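Priority: medium. Attachment 1 of 2:
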């Protein structure tokens, strides 16, 4: 693995995958700008790494000015910005009929528009360097979305995946790479009461959605198969190679569900190919 001192900008760095990634980066001698909503939440990593490696930043990711100050401070401190990791986000549970407009919009604000805010500020520096790598942390639900009761969260992660594909097409000529990461269930506090948002309203008829919520909270929480420290190393590995993947699946569950989705799409495509092609104008 390449351990030359690159500069990483990691959002959502105070817990979960973000915290594991920052610790791994510092242990490998990288420079890290770590963001969170409060500086105090970053205290646990203040003593990690060597002096001068870590720049803890209090950032409101929904505020463009706050993001700009953070990115500018990173470049001022380290001289460049090599890898951006859009990791911050949260899960919103609730059926599409039951969720309020405010609940859905807030989920998109943090999971989609906040990464766009960061991209707008980071890309000019990468463009001037003619180098850089954007890594957007989605979820396997951003590729295989068949989960009752998770429509808002699924939609935000599909949006982030599509955004990454477009970004890769736009920035390839500038030497900037892009990767979307699709982790399966990772053993973090994602399903804790402080991280997971539940819709204020529920509708009793949607029994599958309630069963999915119960499964996640009662059976999956604390038992997720994914190891955040190993996932952090996978992300670092992908950032260190000359040709990183555009799509990076993480964990057995993610790989299985991705293959299942591709098989389903292929079956639909084959079954309806003739009818689909017949919708074109006659040659």
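Attachment 2 of 2:
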């Amino acid at each position: 693995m390449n351990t030359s001192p690159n500069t990483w900008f990691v959002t959502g760095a105070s817990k979960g995958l973000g915290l594991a990634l920052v610790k791994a980066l510092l242990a490998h001698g990288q420079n890290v700008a770590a963001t969170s909503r409060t500086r105090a939440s970053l205290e646990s990593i203040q003593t990690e790494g060597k002096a001068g490696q870590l720049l803890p930043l209090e950032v409101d990711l929904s505020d463009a000015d706050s993001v700009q100050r953070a990115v500018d401070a990173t470049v001022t401190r380290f001289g460049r910005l090599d890898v951006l990791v859009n990791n911050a986000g949260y899960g919103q549970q609730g059926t599409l009929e039951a969720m309020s407009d405010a609940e859905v919009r807030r989920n998109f604000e943090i999971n989609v528009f906040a990464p766009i805010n960061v991209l707008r500020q980071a890309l000019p520096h990468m463009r001037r360097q003619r180098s850089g790598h954007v890594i957007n942390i989605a979820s396997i639900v951003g590729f295989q979305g068949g989960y009752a009761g998770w429509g808002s969260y699924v939609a935000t992660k599909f949006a982030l995946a599509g955004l990454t594909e477009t970004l890769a097409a736009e920035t390839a000529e500038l030497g900037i790479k892009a990767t979307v990461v699709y982790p399966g269930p990772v053993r973090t506090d994602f399903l804790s009461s402080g991280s997971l948002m539940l819709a204020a309203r529920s509708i009793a008829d949607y029994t599958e959605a309630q069963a999915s919520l119960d499964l996640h909270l009662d059976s999956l929480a604390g038992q997720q198969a994914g190891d955040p420290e190993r996932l952090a190393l996978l992300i670092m590995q992908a950032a260190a190679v000359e040709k990183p993947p555009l799509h990076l699946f993480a964990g057995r569950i993610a790989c299985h569900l991705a293959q299942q989705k591709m098989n389903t799409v292929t079956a639909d495509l084959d079954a309806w190919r003739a009818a689909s092609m017949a919708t074109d104008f006659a040659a």
